[in-house]
Every structure is written in C-alpha cells, then in structure tokens.
C-alpha cells in the first residue's frame, strides 16, 4: 500500500461540545449541573487562595467561624483581586477600599462610605458559589441555583471497617505525574474506560507497574449504568480462577477504580474526581478509606523504583506512564485523526452518554445521576475486585 502522506491530512479538529468547560459551552453547562471538589478542606484558611475550576478564577477562604467561602475573584466594587484581601471573623476584606464580604458574598462594610456603609452595603453582593465539605474535600456547585442537586455520598466512602477513616489527597494522577496535568480533562477521564491499555502501558511497555494479574490482557464487557459507564474485566488466573474487576466512570467526572497496586479484593476503596481547571489542564482530587494517615499519597506508580518526578527525561521516554500517554495526545486531542476500534468501545459509550446528557441539559432537563429534594443522596457503586470461579465469570 502506498504511504499516506501527512501532507494530505486535513486540519485537525476536536469535538468542542465534549471538551470545552467554560460557561455557556455545551459540556461546561453539563458539568455545572453537578458538584465538583475544588480544594481540600485544609486549603480553606485565613489566607485567601486562588482556585481555578471550569475556567473560572475564584477565591477560597475560611472565616473566623470556620465557614468556607468561594467568591468570584474580582471585588464587586472596582475589581481588585480578593486574593490580596484579609480574612477576619466575619468574612474577607478587599485591600483597596476595605469592603467586607461574608462567605455568602453579602457586603457587611464599606469603610469609605457614610457611616461605614451602614445604609448602603447591604445592596451589594459579591458573586460566588455555594460550597459543602465532605470526605475532607470542598465541593462547589457552579451551575444555575434553581437546578442545584444534592451532594452525592458514595457507599464505598461511607461504610468503613473498624479502624478505617477517610483521607483526601490532591497530589497526583495516582499513576504518576504532577498535581496539575497540562491537557484536556476528557483525555484522562476516558482512560478510565480503557482497560486494554493496562497490560500494555502499565504491564509491559514500562515494566510492570501494577500487581501481576493486571498485566494479563482482560476480556471486557462494557455496560451503561444509571450513573455512567462501567467495564467488567475478567483475567484468567488459571486453575479455574478468574480475577474479576469492575471499574466505573461516574458522571460528571468520578473515577471508581480499585487500586491496581493492591492484591486485596473487595469494593473499590478510593474515588477520584477529575476537576477540569480549564480547557487544557486538570487535576485529581481523591478520597479513600485508609487505616493509616498518608496512605493515599503512598499509592503511586513506581518506575524502576522511582517516582515520576524523580525520572530524567531519558527515563520518561524509557518508562512512560499515564502522564506521558495522555499529555502526549496534545493539549486537546484531535478527534478528527483518531481511528476508534473494538477495544475503544468503552470510550465510544462514554462519549455517547455525555452527548445525550449535553442534549438533555440543553433541552431543559436534569442530567443522569442528579438527585433532588428528599431523595437519598447515597450512591451505590459496583466497582471493585473479586476472585471468582471461571464458570461464574459473567
Ligand atoms: S475594589 Fe474592592 S473595595 Fe474597592
Ligand atoms: Fe493508566
């Protein structure tokens, strides 16, 4: 066959409605119908901190009563960044003219106005978003107030064994890499529905990064659930035994993936939320059941005994991991140049599910998995690992 000249390639394009996260974009509006973790609880202090989520710059702080606040960065007066503000017992005070805003954005004082703004301050509101704290994370709802769903709770983080507690972490991809990853969030989230890369990228190409059974090529069934897409993977251990592993991509961006570095079986002990920082960067917030402090941060891929950030450039090429694979697709991958095949079935199902939810939101509906009012906020997951007899694989 003649070579396909790269000269003939049309200009690359990507599906904007799946990738872009700004307000007013199709995916941006879908994502804004859910709660997203935007910080660790410990990040909210008397020192204001910039949080960028879904392309919006916000200021996070904690007032003297212990309440976390997440406000629009630009002061409602004349736009100075509240990053330079000072937090006191009642709220955050802008450095420029001293307006004081509480965690709900209510203006309490205008020191340069008559009587300190006693008659005028209440007319001003600093915009912001509601937050709730759960699992050591701060969740924000950045969508239309009248469509705010319940903050989900997850069975795997609620049902603890004696001695277990929940720990949160924000340090890395888990599979190696820095806290902030410079590519579109969907490249990472789709990877959750790509069990076939595991025996290649993690099981042989770069040595074996996970436990031995993960290096086996699985047989996989993909299914749509009432919360996302799941893959049911079977790996033949021989002697009539199968390693059965279920991973879930839960909308909007929750990874329910059992630790591939542990031999233990049982329900998935760890959830990861992919937070799109903007269109071309994301980070992961995780929460998991642990028995010792610091356990989550220790679940990291090692490459020849080294952590990702300890590798030289040569070693990154020698031992690539998820970071190299996903960032290597480009800032936003060119969908027009892909060749999706049978092993990409989970990716296709996930994209179609997102497209349907985008349409549902555009048509005025509420997307999959959202619950309201008195509904039970507890989500029951199937993700986990088991060893089963080969004849009971299905
Ligand atoms: S700009 Fe913030 S108080 Fe004036
Ligand atoms: Fe991976």
UniProtKB/TrEMBL annotation:
Gene3D superfamilies: Naphthalene 1,2-dioxygenase Alpha Subunit, Chain A, domain 1, Rieske [2Fe-2S] iron-sulphur domain. CDD domains: RHO_alpha_C_DMO-like, Rieske_RO_Alpha_PhDO_like. Residues 35-140 form the Rieske domain. Transmembrane segments: none annotated. One of its GO terms (molecular function) is 2 iron, 2 sulfur cluster binding. PROSITE patterns: RIESKE. Pfam families: Rieske. Coiled coil: none annotated. The keyword Ribosomal protein does not apply. InterPro entries: Cholesterol_7-desaturase, Rieske_2Fe-2S, Rieske_2Fe-2S_sf. This is Aromatic ring-hydroxylating dioxygenase subunit alpha. Keywords: 2Fe-2S, Dioxygenase, Iron, Iron-sulfur, Metal-binding, Oxidoreductase.
């Amino acid at each position: 066959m003649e070579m396909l000249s790269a000269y003939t390639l049309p200009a690359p394009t990507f599906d904007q409605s799946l990738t872009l996260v700004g307000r007013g974009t199709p995916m941006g509006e879908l994502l804004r119908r859910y709660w997203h973790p935007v910080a660790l609880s410990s990040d909210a202090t008397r020192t204001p901190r910039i949080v960028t989520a879904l392309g919006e710059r916000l200021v996070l702080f904690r007032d003297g009563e212990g309440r976390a606040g997440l406000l629009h960065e630009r002061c409602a007066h004349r736009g100075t960044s509240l990053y330079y503000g000072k937090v006191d017992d009642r709220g955050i005070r802008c450095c420029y003219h001293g307006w004081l805003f509480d965690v709900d954005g209510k203006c309490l004082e205008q020191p340069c106005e008559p009587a300190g703004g006693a008659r005028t301050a209440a007319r001003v509101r600093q915009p912001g978003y509601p937050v709730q704290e759960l699992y050591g994370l701060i969740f924000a709802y950045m969508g239309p107030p009248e469509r705010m769903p319940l903050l989900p709770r997850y069975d795997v983080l609620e049902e603890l064994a004696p001695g277990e507690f929940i720990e949160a972490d924000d340090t890395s991809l888990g599979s190696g890499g820095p806290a902030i990853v410079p590519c579109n969030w969907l490249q990472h989230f789709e990877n959750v529905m790509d069990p076939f890369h595991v025996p290649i990228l993690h099981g042989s190409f770069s040595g074996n990064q996970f436990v031995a059974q993960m290096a086996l090529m699985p047989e996989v069934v993909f299914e749509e659930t009432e919360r996302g897409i799941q893959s049911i993977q079977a790996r033949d251990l021989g002697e009539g035994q199968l390693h059965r592993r279920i991973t879930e991509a839960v909308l909007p961006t929750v990874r329910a993936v059992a630790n591939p570095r542990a031999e233990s079986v049982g329900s998935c002990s760890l959830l990861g939320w992919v937070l799109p920082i903007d269109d071309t960067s994301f980070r992961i917030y995780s929460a998991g059941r642990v028995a010792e402090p610091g356990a989550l941060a220790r679940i990291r891929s090692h490459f020849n005994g080294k952590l990702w950030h300890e590798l030289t450039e040569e070693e990154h090429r020698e031992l690539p991991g998820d970071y190299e694979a996903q960032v290597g697709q480009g800032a936003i991958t060119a969908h027009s140049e892909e060749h999706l095949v049978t092993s990409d079935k989970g990716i296709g199902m996930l994209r179609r599910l997102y497209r349907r939810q985008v349409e549902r939101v555009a048509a005025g509906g509420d997307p999959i998995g959202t619950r309201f009012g008195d509904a039970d906020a507890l989500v029951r997951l199937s993700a986990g690992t088991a060893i089963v007899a080969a004849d009971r694989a299905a």
